[in-house]
TrEMBL record:
Pfam families: ACT, CM_2, PDT
Superkingdom, taxonomy of origin: Bacteria
PANTHER family: PREPHENATE DEHYDRATASE P PROTEIN, PREPHENATE DEHYDRATASE-RELATED
Major site of localization recorded for this protein: cytoplasm
Its job: Catalyzes the Claisen rearrangement of chorismate to prephenate and the decarboxylation/dehydration of prephenate to phenylpyruvate.
Domain Prephenate dehydratase residues, every copy: 96-272
PROSITE patterns: ACT, CHORISMATE_MUT_2, PREPHENATE_DEHYDR_1, PREPHENATE_DEHYDR_2, PREPHENATE_DEHYDR_3
Protein name: Bifunctional chorismate mutase/prephenate dehydratase
Listed pathway(s): Amino-acid biosynthesis; L-phenylalanine biosynthesis; phenylpyruvate from prephenate: step 1/1; Metabolic intermediate biosynthesis; prephenate biosynthesis; prephenate from chorismate: step 1/1
Catalytic activity: chorismate = prephenate; prephenate + H(+) = 3-phenylpyruvate + CO2 + H2O
Site residues by UniProt (Essential for prephenate dehydratase activity): T265
Amino acid sequence: MSDEQTKLGELRDRIDGIDQQIMDLICARARCAQEVAEVKMTYNPGQDVFFYRPEREAQVLRRVMEENPGPLSGEEMARLFREIMSACLALEKPMHIAFLGPAGTFTQAAALKHFGHSVVSVPLAAIDAVFREVESGAAHYGVVPVENSTEGMINHTLDMFMQSSLKICGEVQLRIHHHLLASAETREGEIRRIYSHQQSLAQCRQWLDANRYGIERVPVSSNAEAARRASEEPGTAAVAGDMAAELYGLEKLAGNIEDRPDNTTRFLIIGREEVGPSGHDKSSILVSMRNKPGALYQLLEPFHRHGISLTRIETRPSPSGTWAYVFYIDFEGHMDDPQVAKVLAEIDEEAVELKRLGSYPIGVL
């Protein structure tokens, strides 16, 4: 046996031993998670017990990223822990996560990125259906898109918060990569029609103009639907992501065709309960102000005076009357923070209505 074979054999024996230790520790963690579930059930008999704690999970993932010694990156290590926690949580009670479907959309990818792959993901046809599924208790949480870095806010999601009692429990940001996809039987020169969601077509407009000018572009309800059609209709292609390509067995004719390489979509996690402070949080509110001079100043000035940073402000028509508006505001901090509480108290005195949508950990992954 050569020196190389000897050294490789020793290293493989070490890896086998380390793998056994990893497995033993994961099993020990899983048993501890089961004990957590038993304690919660024992001390909360007959109550709707929430096993998933967003603030606790965010704290664990942040600690993993901060204390990771390498050589794996902090983000890669956190993703591994995310899946371990997902599997352990499923032992307590498998979670049903509603998302804007169908299967294979970027919203499903965001749901799996946030909750891990050990959840039951439930595709629904519309954003309001996701809200209803969570409100009814049929799903533990929902995942809906709220803004894209190139196309702006998703107004339907904002409008749903005006009528829903659900809380925002978390956020996740997903880098969006679009590919030109077709079935193995479709030759590139035969493509006469390209399907995709209208927003995806807009995000790839320059590339399509330069590389597929003259080919008909047909907007459909989702990128997954575009991929399904491309898999069934000869002479067609789809602009969609990796999940849709894998789901429908499509080949990649061109990759990463989005016009902006930093194209990112932010998704919100919606649920029925409030989330405690994690130490690095964001809050969202809806505010309807009286229609009078200086109303916007009165709304924003307390944030400046108390040193609270706004991250987003949007205006939406109010359902209560013509030319009345509601402000959707994201800001840093938790509503339990003393300074935030002072700001909200001041706003509440001047506002027609102040709706607290929730405080939640700033996205870790």
